[in-house]
Amino acid sequence: MAISQALYTGVTGLSVNSDGMSVIANNIANANAKGFKKDRAEFEDMLSLDLNSGTGSAQIGRGARLRGVRTVQSQGGLAVTDNLTDMAIQGSGFFVVSNAKSEVQESAGKFYTRNGSFIFDKDGYLSSSTGGHVQGFMANELGAISSRLQDIRIETNQIAPQQTTKLMMNVNLDARSKQLEGDFDPTKAELTSNFNNTITMFDSQGGSHQMTTFFKRLDDSEGITFEWHAVVDGQEVVDADGAKTKEIGKGTVKFDAKGVLLDRTIDMSEVNFAGGAAQAQVIDFDFGKTIKDGGTGLGAATAIAAKSVTNFHNQNGYEAGNIKSLRMELDGTIRGIYTNGVTRALGAVALATFENQDGLMKAGHNEFFSSIDSGPPKIGMAQSGTRGSIFASSLEESNVDLAAEFVQMIMTQRGFQANSRSITTTDSMYEEVINLKR
Questions:
Q1: Which of 106, 151, 251, 343 could form a disulfide with 369 if both were Cys (CB 3.0 to 4.6 A apart)?
Q2: 3-state helix, strand and coil shares in percent for the chain, rounded to the nearest 5
Q3: H or E stretch including 426?
Q4: Are residues 382 and 403 in the same domain?
């Protein structure tokens, strides 16, 4: 009799609405959990009962059941924090964490999360709240980032000094400068040159030295030519022979009629600093790309009718230094800022994407692990491929909408109430059938 089936149909309605209420309660409970992704209960009808009648076939539904609980991987809002190691993803992707202390040990120990509440542990590893190590790509001593996925560990060791090997100098040498009589004399450098500038350079031990470059105009009927002489304090080198100053480099810079750098030469460039520093330190004096080498004059030394001035100078040496702060880029690169002014890439946080992120399985602690349905992770740097950006000092909020959850709660409660009413009504129908005997 179909009346008995109605009871079981009502029971299935109570069951699915109870499951739906559990999902809603879980969403509300995690409304303030960082990186939490809400779930959605999805129902479907059960196999129908076929009834044969004289007019044809008729099908009566046998109730509903829970088809599955889907995790909604929509973007949560970003909240600003005061902790540099708090990270939030804007866009697609998951942080990769290894060896986390999770209730589930799957996927070769790799877990994936949107909760970027990370800290550096006592060993210098960037770690999650579960104790797992955040995965990424480390940089070598030159700041080049490798492609090998590994634990991110920031070492606070002192950065070794680097001696100056290249000096870039963008100057304008006044085309109106007069040609001075006699040769350049290091002992009377200011009197036998037209212009000079001073820059700090470093030896192999990181010791700093003041080097002055003097420019003296030469006789040239085809253009403008200056000779340059690099001079340091004689007490700072081993081969000054008692002289007050020591010339460590010289050459020429030649300009065309428009004052554009035409050619440059280095006749000598070698210095032997005292104090045990490496000897025969060679410095490449770079005045910009010449016309001879395909330059256009932009960003190079000039010789126009304007006051001689140093527009820009730079050298690649530095003293030893320690990390004083860190900086996070949008592509996940972690840069160390050292006390000697050097900024160097130390590593980069990796992000993982999946062909089917709905196939990820929950592992607790707002973490997931991959499955056959999700497919293998595609791991790379942020802002590459379809991966999003990483914002430091930020955390992603839960994507739970409390207003929507309360509306869904009302709908679920009413559905449960209606199904319970169908059971009591069916019970009344049974009672009428039993009363037929009276």
A1: 106
A2: 20, 40, 40
A3: helix 402-434
A4: no
SS3 at position 262 = strand
| Count: domains in the chain | 3
Q: What percent of the chain has pLDDT above 90?
A: 65
Find the CATH number of the domain harbouring 198: 2.60.98.20
Check whether residue 105 and residue 196 sit in a common domain.
no
CA distances from 88 to 37, 113, 234, 364, 393 (A): 14, 10, 56, 19, 8
Nearest partner of 258 among 224, 213, 215, judged by Cα: 224
Q: DSSP character for 30?
A: T
| Cβ pair 407, 414 in contact under 8 A | no
Q: pTM of the prediction?
A: 0.75
Residue whose C-alpha is closest to residue 417's, from 10, 9, 6, 2: 10
Tokens encoding 237:
């080198």
Parent domain of 49: 2-73+399-437
Out of 315, 335, 370, a domain closes at 315
Q: Is a pLDDT exceeding 70 seen at residue 101?
A: no
At 423, is the secondary structure helix, strand, or coil? helix
Distance CA(350)–CA(41), nearest Å, equals 32
What b/e string do you get for 318-357 counting C-beta neighbours within 10 Å, with b at 16 or more?
bbbbebeeeebbebbbbbbebebebeebbbbbbbbbbeeb
Rounded Cα gap, residues 39 and 72, in angstroms:
6
Alpha-carbon distances, residue 254 vs 162, 169, 186, 192, 215 (angstroms) = 31, 15, 22, 19, 12
If you average pLDDT over residues 383-396, what whole number do you get?
94
Please say if the pLDDT value at position 52 is more than 70.
no
- Cβ atoms of residues 283 and 166 within 8 Å: yes
Cα–Cα distance measured from residue 36 to residue 181, given in angstroms and rounded to the nearest whole number: 80
Question: Do both 253 and 281 map to the same domain?
Answer: yes
- Looking at the structure, tell me whether residues 55 and 192 fall in a common domain: no
Give percent of the chain above pLDDT 70.
Answer: 94
Contacts of 424 by beta carbon, 8 Å cutoff, 6+ apart: none
